[in-house]
Amino acid sequence: MKRILITAAAILSIVSCAGAKKSKNPSEVTLSKEVLMDKIKGAWAGQIIGCTYGGPTEFKYATTINDNIPIKWDEHGIKWYYDNSPGLYDDVYMDLTFVDVFDKEGLDAPVESFAKAFANAGYPLWHANQAARYNILHGVMPPESGHWKNNPHADDIDFQIEADYAGIMAPGMPNAASYFSDQIGHIMNFGDGWYGGVYVANMYALAFVCDDIETVCTEALKSIPAQSRYYKCMKDILDWHRQYPDDWEIAWALSNKKYGFDIGCPGGVYSAFNIDAVINSAYILIGLLYGEGDFGKTIDISTRCGHDSDCNPASSGGILATMLGYDAIPEYWKKPLYEVADRNFKYTDISFNRACDLSFDQACQVIERNGGKVGKKDVTIKIQTPEPVRYEQSFEGLWPMEKVQVGGKDVRTVGQLSFEGQGIVVGHRVANTKDFNLEGYEAQVEVYLDGTLDQTVLLPVKANNYKQEIYSNYDLSDATHTLDFKWLNPVPGVTITINYLLPYKARPEDIDTF
Length: 514
Hints:
Elements (H helix, E strand, L loop, with lengths): L2 E3 L8 E3 L3 E2 L6 E5 H22 L22 H8 L5 H16 L5 H9 L7 H11 L20 H4 L2 H5 L5 H15 L3 H16 L5 H8 L8 H15 L4 H12 L17 H14 L4 H10 L6 H14 L6 H8 L13 H18 L3 E2 L3 E5 L15 E3 L3 E7 L6 E5 L1 E10 L9 E8 L2 E9 L10 E3 L5 E9 L6 E13 L8
Antiparallel strand pairs: 1-2, 3-4, 4-6, 5-6, 7-15, 8-15, 9-14, 10-13, 10-15, 11-12, 11-14
């Protein structure tokens, strides 16, 4: 392995990179095209393998998964998921939506193209993604589609799990990774939810040119504003790893004590369920740091941290495998991928092998656009020092109060609901009880706030187009308020029920982690 100096202007450390050539300019790295492709293949393979390994445990554990609980690895396991449960790879085919738009429309494709491709795709979505899809299909385009005042899930994990594309197309160029994360990331997220994707993308970008995990994790964090809660959590994980280098569960426990309370996602507030980007990013970081460069150990730790335990090892596995390269992934982990390498992911016309080809082509374009060179056999990359993206904060000044269960009462008979607070989210459910063919039907429900019509909400019956919550409003005066609902166009066989109220008041002064 040849050693190269990346810094003063870049990573401030000596790194080694297989296939790299020494440069007279310390801010440049030259890689053979073969090595670049090997790392891109590693990125996609690591993501697929990590996702598959954690798949059986996804959201089944709100605590750590004890080492005595076996997590099986089957040499035909990836094929089984392709055949029987292809939705497991949502964090892959979501990425590929954006890769495909870049391929068809170029690096300057407008955000509207990504938004429309995402919103009209055939795959089911959840949380911030689904809220954004609903917004887009009803005329609320990015960045408003991901803003927390329009999307109660703005801090959820969604963009974090689908930001890999941005780092893979920007090898050694973390600021380019941030650039390609901005407009797309704000389709569905804001604040900490956006930062999760920015940090993941920056780690991917740096993993192409640095072979030290702690350096990658530390340097990539420079892309996140230091005053954000997200930054503070990742900084704490890095510090706890130095303090307790031999026990990842200590870092896990400390991070959950300080950062494990979700104030945004209605399903996660006052619940063991937690899809918040901050805590799940912590699990990616714990896997990377305590995995010590071992692929199997890395994805196992990220999985055993719990919660979104397929997406988190997908990210840590993809980042580490970018650093290692595809050829260095142990055969034990890589072998199941061979069976499906040329099979398209569901909802796409892109396979693993084609994804690698597309990302390689896009990486070469980004290298040239950012001052590098692409030759016949080599690429020369102008290494970038990560710079912080802008600061933004979701749910600023707000704190969730006790969730009030309404009991699934029919929207037509629930009557007037009252609450105290400065904000409110109302949970509901639409059911097609007689399975009528109502794919194009949208229920129209008027929402009256304090006796005055506030908005008319459209509630599609079509499965992929559903609305996450019937109503949310974070701009209320701190007072007692009332809500009334009127269903304008009821049809036989469809029910709409109100399930809960989640009011918000001013954040308590003694809360120091938000």
